[in-house]
Write a structure and sequence with these properties.
Elements: H1 2-17, H2 24-48, H3 56-90, H4 98-125, H5 135-153, H6 160-163, H7 166-175, H8 177-191
Helix pairs in contact: 1-8, 2-3, 2-5, 3-4, 4-5, 7-8
């Protein structure tokens, strides 16, 4: 019996934790976390124009699909976040689409993986391991996408398993302990 009471208390604590009050500054900061992806896409564009790139057309072929996917996904994520912010501020009906958010986040993870495959293919053709000038930018983008995942996890119960691969999820849990805690809280809330 005490275990059941403890579990119910934990579910109540988790449920009230998700009713956190956010200030306008909190929403602005979280919105900036999402829109930072636009700036990072611009950093990818700059790799094409870099003097370190011997073949700008090839570089464009490598980064352009990722740039486009970042723009498309970020457009969706910013709009969905605006819906979430309006809902929290006005205590109205939730307009945000969990499906759209998950789809946009999945698009970002797939785009990053596709970029890595394109670089790997070019490296094979060059008969050696070549690091692309955009690799550090793409790593920053991946970390930023992970921060965006955390932003949305604060407001919605999204399925990380449907967004990213198992290895990516495990690596994310190791890098950011908040993810593991949020996933645990969501599972407790579902059990309750």
């Amino acid at each position: 019996m005490p275990v059941t009471i403890a579990l119910k208390m934990r579910v109540i604590i988790v449920a009230t934790a998700h009713k956190k009050t956010y200030s306008a500054e909190d929403f602005d900061a979280k919105y900036l976390e999402i829109t930072n992806l636009y700036d990072m896409a611009e950093d990818l564009v700059n790799t094409v124009e870099s003097s370190l790139v011997s073949n700008p057309n090839l570089q464009l072929d490598i980064v352009e699909p990722l740039i486009n996917d970042i723009g498309d996904a970020t457009d969706i994520l910013t709009q969905e976040f605006i819906y979430i912010a309006e809902n929290k501020k006005n205590k109205g009906a939730m307009k945000a689409s969990k499906t759209n958010i998950e789809s946009a986040l999945r698009k970002l993870f797939v785009a990053i993986n596709d970029y890595q495959e394109r670089v790997k293919d070019i490296s094979k053709k060059a008969h050696g391991a070549i690091m692309n000038i955009a690799d550090p930018v793409v790593q920053k983008i991946q970390r930023q996408v992970e921060l965006v995942v955390v932003v949305f996890l604060e407001f919605l119960q999204i399925s990380l398993q449907s967004i990213m691969g198992k290895a990516e999820l495990e690596a994310l849990k190791v890098r950011d302990s908040r993810i593991a805690l949020m996933m645990h809280e969501h599972s407790l809330a579902q059990q309750g």
